[in-house]
Amino acid sequence: MTDRFNNVRELLLVRIGEITLKGLNRGRFVARLIGNMRRRIKDLGEFSIEQSHSRIWIHSLSGNPLMKEVAKRLSSVFGIVSISPALEFEPDWETLVRVVEDYAKDILAGAGKRTFKLETRRVNKEFPMSSYEVSSELGARLLTKYPDQLSVQMVDPDIIFHVEIRDMIYVYHETISGHAGLPVGMSGRGMLLLSGGIDSPVAGYMMASRGMIIEAVYFHTFPYTSQQALDKVENLARILSRYAGRIAFHVVDFTDIQLELNDKVPEDMLTVVMRRVMMRIAEKLARERNAKAIITGESLGQVASQTAEALMTTDIVVDLPVFRPLIGLDKNDTVTLARKIGTFETSILPYDDCCTVFVSKHPKTHPSLLDAERAESRIDMDAIIEASKEKISTKLIDLSFEKSD
Amino acid sequence: MLPEVLDVYIRLLGELGFNPSSTHAGGLRALARLDDARRIIARYLDCSPDEIIFTSGGTESINLAILGTAASMGRRPKRALTTAGEHDAVIETMKVLRDVHGFDVGFVAITREGVVDEVALISALEEAPCGLVSFLVVSNETGAINDVRHLSSVIRQYAPQALIHGDIVQVCGKMPFSFKNSGLDFASLSGHKFGAPKGTGVLLKRRDVALSPIIHGGGQQMNIRSGTEDVPGAYALALALQSQAARLNEHVEHVAALRDRFLCEIDALRLPYSVLSPEGASPYVLSIAFPGIRGETLLNALSAEDIYISTGSACGSKRAGENHVLSAMGFDREMILSAVRISFSQQQSIDDVQYLARRIGDLYDRYAMPVRR
To answer: Looking at the partner chain, which of B300, B319, B373 has a beta carbon nearest the beta carbon of A223?
Structure first.
């Protein structure tokens, strides 16, 4: 297209929804979003990314713009509502006709019969035709040019040609949905308890969509749980980083702690105490990493350790807010989300995590605080938490520079 | 792979890159080698060279025998029997027979000793006429050995029209086998189980039995298995068989000694264990459970030390506690969860198995958890 016409440029038109409501903070939100976008497409070439008229406009500055790939990657950056690949040229009627005719030709190639309509917005009132005139004239020209393929349909047509007349004219027909939300980095940092299951990656996604930087902690219980189980969790973190950007992934070698708990905690309280220990370690880690909250994938009543009483007994051991974005969600809705973000297939791989290996047959579903404290009476909790510091290894996971598939 | 086989295999990959169906000198040389391979295999498995069909391995051989028979059943009844102790290759193919080809498929029970329950087999054979029977000769899970000749004759007696397929994947190179005397119509084997390259296998097919192809194309191998033959692979398989046969008794004795020594060492450790493999099983595989520690935990811990054992069947990554063969033998979930499968081979030494037993003892002490119910 750009080869066929001089002065016609490809660009991406990015809509940013919620951020535009941010009043005085808006500048900071937009700057952060643009920064996140830049990081995501850094390896694809040089781009100019500018904000004006409640939108972000992306032009390629290097020779071979991979606009499709750019659009695809950006669609997973939080803060973006939608993206349209568009053409940009000087506001001139004859150019507009030629460009749209040519544009239609590409879309119609091998496509058979299609219905269409035109939607014109004229912001630049110096343009000599009204938006109605542009739509009807341009529609007529298209019908003349492609009489066998195109027919007009006002409600729900196959193709909507958008024409926006500003200082320049913009033509587009495709709108790629983004994941909306707020730019990652605007809402502090959260420490996500990431297991190999379906829920916790979704919880991380949801908090990242509200602008949180995500760090993840996994409790590895080798050899009770396998290397494959650890690899699986790392892969989940990697998928999550497509949305959340860079993730610090902490692995706690939990085996000795688990053995001690097995030894000293009554079996029906094992899960609750195990979770209380995990929460304490996560809190300690969160404070060291300057995280403002702990994030878990718990959903009320889903399993024995997620009853209101069990959640209370785990909550109470930490002094940070615990965000549980799935707390009121039905499992089916969580699965739908997991499929949408691409973690589901990995989550259902059959490697045991510690929650399945060390599950007791008849856990106490409604433990009281006293139950929990009694169950921990034979444990030197401070020593365990202190010693856990030596058992944590951290790895940065950053998908920004890997090709998305 | 056996080192002596690897050498020849690599040389042939270079020298014999010709299509044995070509009529130029290179093609003829390749064809001659393929015929050599058939003659060698025929000698050691006591069959005729024209009863040998080369395949890509045990799974393909089994599929070809079962699905190929299904497509040429003639007037034989569309009812097939197999056992609960089979490898997945047979079980899944039988399900295709049932779900796609409309066969009535029955799974005959196995005993606590892991062999075919003869009473159950006879009553299944008497229940309705049967056109195909497939059974495992040596169990890949437990080493349990079915008396192939005896079972074949029982099947012939009660279902004279039935074709009989034997899965001899765990037999070849590990015990003597005569196709002629086995009473089988088909037998499937896999090259990599006895020192030949992966991707090599054979289906033995009695000469007077019809079989339809499941892979179609250029009509190679009597139009039963189309596709250019892998001459170096076929020849390597033959050589591996020859090499194993030459020292078969010596190998079996050594491997049996390894297994026995291992069990003595384990016994001396005074930790709880149950041998799930029956008396008189093939010494090459041992199914053993250590109640108190999960098989997977032991596998993971040993694997970190570069010692490789298995839980369940290595072919599938199943969920913990599921093993259809051990279940069919009547073991409960707890026992299956704590079961591992250890393979012994002639390359290992007494020191190796002593070390393994000691490591299992140490790891048990460290990781076993009392069963608290």
So the answer is: B300
pLDDT of A305 over the 50 cut: yes
Which residues of B form the catalytic set? 315
Closest residue in B to A261 (Cα) is B369
Query: Tens of pLDDT along A144-185?
Result: 999 999 999 999 999 999 999 999 999 999 999 999 999 999
Q: What is B248-367's CATH topology?
A: Aspartate Aminotransferase, domain 1 (3.90.1150)
The pLDDT assigned to A1 comes to 47
Q: Which residue has the tokens 């199943």?
A: B318
- The gap from C-alpha B330 to its chain's centroid, in whole angstroms, comes to 22
Q: How many Å apart are CA B185 and CA B202, to the nearest integer?
A: 14
B320 and A CB contact within 8 Å: yes
CB contact, 8 Å: B252 with chain A? no
Contacts of B308 (CB under 8 A, 6+ apart): B302
CA distance B347 to A148: 75
Provide DSSP, B296-337. HHHHHHHHTTT---BSS-TTS-PPTT--HHHHHTT--HHHHH
Q: Where are the domains of chain A?
A: 9-177, 189-397
Q: In this predicted structure, what is the pLDDT of residue A404?
A: 43
In this complex, do A224 and B298 lie within 8 Å of one another by their Cβ atoms?
no
Per-residue pLDDT at A257 exceeds 60 = yes
Tell me whether the omega of the peptide bond preceding residue A223 falls within 30 degrees of 0, making it cis. yes
Residue B151: partners with Cβ closer than 8 Å, 6 or more residues away:
B116, B118, B121, B135, B183
pLDDT value at position B119?
97
Given a cut of 90, is residue A190 above it in pLDDT?
Answer: yes
Give the separation between CA B136 and CA B138, rounded to whole angstroms.
Answer: 6
CATH numeric code, B3-246: 3.40.640.10
Going by pLDDT thresholds of 50, 70 and 90, the confidence category of residue A359 is: low
Using a CB–CB cutoff of 8 Å, tell me whether B306 touches chain A.
no
Question: What's the Cα-to-Cα distance from A45 to each of A30, A59, A67, rounded to whole Å?
Answer: 21, 11, 10
- Which residues does chain B have within 8 Å of residue A227's beta carbon, measured at their own beta carbons? 300, 303-304
A223–B319: do the CB atoms touch at under 8 Å?
Answer: no
Give the minimum alpha-carbon distance from B339 to chain A in angstroms, rounded to a whole number: 14
Average pLDDT over residues B106-124: 97
Q: Which residues in chain B are classed under CATH 3.90.1150.10?
A: 248-367
Sign of the CA dihedral B119, B124, B130, B133?
Answer: negative
Q: Which fold has domain A189-397?
A: Rossmann fold (3.40.50)
Q: Does the structure show a pLDDT above 60 at B231? A: yes
DSSP category for residue B319 = P
List every span in chain B annotated with CATH 3.40.640.10: 3-246
ipTM: 0.76
Distance CA(A305)–CA(B165), nearest Å, equals 51
pLDDT surpassing 80 at residue B124: yes
pLDDT tens by residue, A44-58:
889 999 998 789 999
Q: Give the residue-averaged pLDDT of B310-336.
A: 77
CA of B36, closest CA in chain A: separation in Å?
A: 44
Q: Cβ distance B338 to B289 under 8 Å?
A: yes
CATH number of A9-177: 3.30.2130.30
What CA dihedral angle connects B251, B252, B253 and B257, to 10 degrees?
100
Position B139 scores a pLDDT of: 97
In chain B, the residue whose alpha carbon lies closest to the alpha carbon of A361 is B373
| Mean pLDDT, chain B, whole residue set | 94
**Cβ B304–A222 below 8 Å, yes or no?**
yes
pTM, whole model, 2 decimals?
0.81
Per-residue pLDDT at A288 exceeds 90: yes
| Under 8 Å between Cβ of A159 and A115 | yes
